[in-house]
């Protein structure tokens, strides 16, 4: 969960033509998620988060914080069953940086449709018309901001 100095969250809009099926939580063709993705062999979750952030945004000047949330879910991805172990880390971008698509991997170039910085108010308003993940993202962001961006304790376990 990448925040800027104005407490806006960066979300990436993905385009998947019915590829992901999460039981009880439909995902449409277009949906917004924080930057992230799968781990490569030998990576831990934080290493994977750093690499994915750089690949999907080009942003490297980032202050990393704790793991906020975890989500373990079985999905169908491209028709195949996959068990996802998601970890959401708090991070803040330092200074002024521009998001770029220059480091996207070949499959990501087609899948990543857009990116946008969202204020909490914009996120709350968009929840009625946009698909946002993780489920309940505006409330989750509100909790982090209410804690001054410095949550304490163990990561919260999310459910679909």
What features would you describe in this structure?
Keywords: Hydrolase, Magnesium. This is NUDIX domain-containing protein. Residues 1-141 form the Nudix hydrolase domain. Pfam families: NUDIX. Its cofactor is Mg(2+). The protein has 160 residues and is of the alpha/beta class. It has a single domain, classed as Alpha-Beta Complex (Nucleoside Triphosphate Pyrophosphohydrolase). 22% of the residues lie in helices and 34% in strands. The chain is built from four helices and eight strands; from the N terminus they run E-E-E-E-H-E-E-H-E-H-H-E. The strands form two sheets. Strands 1, 3, 5, 6 and 8 form a five-stranded mixed β-sheet that branches. A hairpin with a 2-residue loop joins strand 5 (62-77) and strand 6 (80-93). The longest helix is centred in the N-terminal third of the chain and has 13 residues, at 45-57. The chain is globular and about 40 Å long. The model has no long low-confidence stretch (mean pLDDT 87).
Q: Portion of residues in helices?
A: 10-25%
Classified in CATH, the superfamily is: Nucleoside Triphosphate Pyrophosphohydrolase
Beta content: 25-35%
Q: N-to-C terminal Cα separation, in Å? A: 18 Å
Task: Quickly give the structural class.
Answer: alpha/beta
CATH architecture: Alpha-Beta Complex
Principal-axes geometry comes out as globular
The assembly state of the depicted protein chains is single chain
């Amino acid at each position: 969960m990448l925040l800027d100095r104005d407490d806006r969250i960066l979300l990436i809009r993905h385009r998947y033509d019915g590829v992901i099926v999460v039981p009880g939580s439909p995902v449409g063709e277009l949906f917004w998620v924080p930057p992230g993705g799968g781990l490569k062999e030998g990576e831990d979750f934080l290493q994977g988060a750093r690499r994915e952030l750089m690949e999907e945004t080009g942003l490297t000047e980032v202050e990393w914080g704790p793991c906020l949330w975890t989500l373990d879910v079985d999905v169908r991805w491209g028709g195949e069953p996959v068990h996802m172990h998601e970890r959401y880390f708090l991070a803040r971008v330092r200074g002024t940086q521009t998001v770029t698509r220059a480091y996207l991997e070949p499959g990501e170039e087609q899948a990543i449709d857009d990116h946008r910085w969202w204020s909490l108010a914009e996120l709350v308003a968009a929840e009625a018309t946009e698909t946002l993940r993780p489920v309940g993202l505006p409330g989750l962001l509100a909790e982090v901001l209410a804690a001054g961006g410095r949550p304490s304790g163990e990561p919260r376990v999310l459910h679909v």
